[in-house]
Structures are given as structure tokens and as C-alpha cells.
From TrEMBL:
Belongs to the gamma-BBH/TMLD family. InterPro entries: AlphaKG_dependent_hydroxylases (IPR050411), GBBH-like_N_sf (IPR038492), TauD-like_sf (IPR042098), TauD/TfdA-like (IPR003819), Trimethyllysine_dOase (IPR012776). The keyword Iron applies. Keywords: Carnitine biosynthesis, Dioxygenase, Iron, Metal-binding, Oxidoreductase. The keyword Metal-binding applies. Residues 72-315 form the TauD/TfdA-like domain. One of its GO terms (molecular function) is trimethyllysine dioxygenase activity. Pathway: Amine and polyamine biosynthesis; carnitine biosynthesis. This is Trimethyllysine dioxygenase. Transmembrane segments: none annotated. Gene3D superfamilies: 3.30.2020.30, Clavaminate synthase-like. It comes from Aspergillus sclerotialis. GO terms for cellular component: mitochondrion.
Length: 329
């Protein structure tokens, strides 16, 4: 799968051939695309669209950025989290402050891992089920269920209300290697983009993009309306949610050339920041240590791996995380 942002900015069509049901385009960078006519008709744009005015004020909530060079990650012991309110409070504060936290000493069982998630909130059920216990067997037609490299992304961009928390616990990895986990702070990336080009932040917080989940048979999920990459509270003008997933982004309709150029220029630069080594935390998950992160802030991914890995985990409900966190303050 090629990244959208590997396509040259000055790309142009060198040759177009029309067949019975599709157009074949030979692009200047050497790749070829086949575009069914019914798809082209469905995604054509009107010519009389007027540019929209965007709000450009974006504030960032209080947070701390964990330097990838620092291998001393926020960590709490399982026993303290499960038996003490003070341990739970420290765990929640780490998630709120840093965007992620490790939990050490977790028993090597799905039951103990599920109890850990439920210490915060009910498990969020989706089309993937509730609590997960899976291997890379393509049970679902999703890159997470393969052994392939998985680039940084947030989950559930195709939901109106994406899950706030996500937890992984590697139960075993046999007969192979690789599979290092990736974390990227989407809020810190937005802060850096704001310093470089405030107009790019305005484009990513105003221009909405479609998302969909349609890899599995009989599954086609879309949010109630389109959302921007950077979601801003309309009263405080504070960034509260990042939605970034190149795997699930759909084809946008009804936007003019000016908006298209603004969004792609901004998205390309944001993508460059996200993929810079100074932003990427790479760590190897180990049995007995769970990782939880804020899916509204942290992008996650995974290196390619060999062998058989057994992973368990789940999503945590949004509102219950907020309620429990406030009660612990």
C-alpha cells in the first residue's frame, strides 16, 4: 500500500485511455491508475463552489511531550492500579499528561487484562467485538490482523465517537521477531505544525474528510458526518481530538480546488512531522507489560514481524474515562 503523501506534489497525467467501463491514467511519476466511470461520476465536484472562511485560532490543552530519546516511560505497577485508588489516580494522570502509560506485572491471562481495562471503564464494543484475544490470522480484513508494517494512525475515524482509550497486552511471541510498537503524539505534532505554518493548522481543523470501514464483508461504517483531522472545541478553541488514519480515509466530494490544495499541502506537512524520528517512540512490548494510550491524541503503529504473536486488549469508553479521571483528582 503506497502512502498518499509519497505522490509528488507536481504530479500530472501523461496519458489517458478510455475503456468501456473505466479510464486508465498513466501518471508522471510512473504509476498507473484505473478509475471506473461510476466512481468518477459519484465523486465529481461542482464548478461553482465558493471558498469557505476558516477560524484560525487553535489552542492546545496542557500536556507533556515524551521525548523518544528518553526510554524512561511513564509506568505503574499492576498491583497498585488494581488495589489502590492512589495507584489508579497515578495511572490516569500519566495517560492524561503523557498520552500513554505502561502497566508492569500484569498476569499473562486475558482475564487479568480485561479486569485492568475495566478498572477505568466499560469495554467499548465494536464490529471487532468487545475484549480482543487475537493472532495475525486475518479473522478481520484489517491490517492489524496481519504481520505487515502498520503506520502511525488513530483508530475508529469511521465512528462518530471514536474510542478514547486503547490497551494492548502481548501475551506471547514465538518463533519469530520484530513487531516493535510505535507511538506518536498527535497534539505535539499539531503544536509543531502551528509554529511552522498556522494556516496549515487552520486547514486541518476546518476542512472535513470522509472516513469509512469497509474491508470486511457486510461491514460499511461511516460517521454521521465528516470530521476534520484536528477537532476544536467551538467555545474554548482548544484542540481536543486528532483523527488521522490514511488506511480508512475516503474520497472527498464537494470541495473546490483551493480547498483541495490547502488541505493536501497541510496534510503533507503534518505527515512529515509525524514521521520524523524526533516524534516517534519505538518500543518492544513484552508479556506481562500492558500499554494503554489516549486514542484521541496518540497515533499508534507496529513494525513488521515474523512468527506468531498473541495479543489481547480492548477499547475503553470515552465518558467513563473522563468521569473516573475527574473523581481521582
Amino acid at each position: 500500500m503506497n502512502s498518499l503523501f509519497q505522490v509528488p506534489k507536481d504530479i500530472n497525467a501523461k496519458k489517458i485511455a478510455y475503456e468501456a467501463e473505466h479510464a486508465e491514467v498513466h501518471w508522471s511519476d510512473g504509476h498507473r491508475g484505473l478509475y471506473p466511470f461510476d466512481w468518477l461520476i459519484a465523486h465529481q465536484n461542482p464548478t461553482n463552489l465558493t471558498p469557505r472562511k476558516y477560524h484560525e485560532e487553535v489552542e492546545l490543552r496542557e500536556y507533556k511531550f515524551h521525548d523518544p530519546a528518553n526510554k524512561d516511560y511513564p509506568t505503574v505497577p499492576f498491583e497498585a492500579v488494581m488495589s489502590q485508588d492512589r495507584g489508579l489516580s497515578e495511572w490516569l494522570e500519566n495517560i492524561q499528561t503523557w498520552g500513554f502509560c505502561f502497566v508492569e506485572g500484569v498476569p499473562l491471562s486475558p482475564e487479568a487484562t480485561q479486569a485492568l481495562i475495566e478498572r477505568i471503564a466499560f469495554i467499548r464494543h465494536t464490529h471487532y467485538g468487545g475484549f480482543w484475544d487475537f493472532t495475525a490470522d486475518m479473522t478481520f480484513k484489517d491490517t492489524a490482523y496481519t504481520t505487515e508494517f502498520l503506520g502511525g494512525h488513530t483508530d475508529n475515524t469511521y465512528f462518530t465517537d471514536p474510542a478514547r482509550l486503547q490497551l494492548f497486552h502481548l501475551l506471547s511471541h514465538t518463533d519469530g521477531s520484530g513487531g516493535e510498537s510505535l507511538l506518536i503524539d498527535g497534539i505535539e505534532a499539531a503544536a509543531r505544525l502551528k509554529k511552522q505554518a498556522p494556516g496549515h493548522v487552520a486547514a486541518l481543523s476546518n476542512i472535513r474528510q470522509p472516513a469509512h470501514s469497509s474491508g470486511n464483508q457486510d461491514v460499511c461504517i461511516q460517521p454521521v458526518h465528516q470530521f476534520p483531522v484536528l477537532n476544536i472545541d467551538p467555545e474554548t478553541l482548544r484542540l481536543y481530538q486528532v483523527r488521522w488514519n490514511n488506511y480508512d480515509r475516503g474520497a472527498r466530494q464537494y470541495w473546490g480546488i483551493e480547498s483541495q490544495e490547502e488541505w493536501y499541502d497541510a496534510a503533507r506537512e503534518y505527515n512529515n512531522i509525524l514521521n520524523s524520528p524526533q516524534m516517534q517512540i519505538w518500543t518492544q512490548l513484552k508479556p506481562g507489560t500492558a500499554l494503554i494510550f489516549d486514542n484521541w491524541r496518540m497515533l499508534h503503529g507496529r513494525a513488521e514481524f515474523t512468527g506468531k504473536r498473541r495479543m489481547c486488549g480492548g477499547y475503553g469508553m470515552v465518558s467513563f474515562y473522563d468521569i473516573v479521571h475527574l473523581k481521582q483528582l
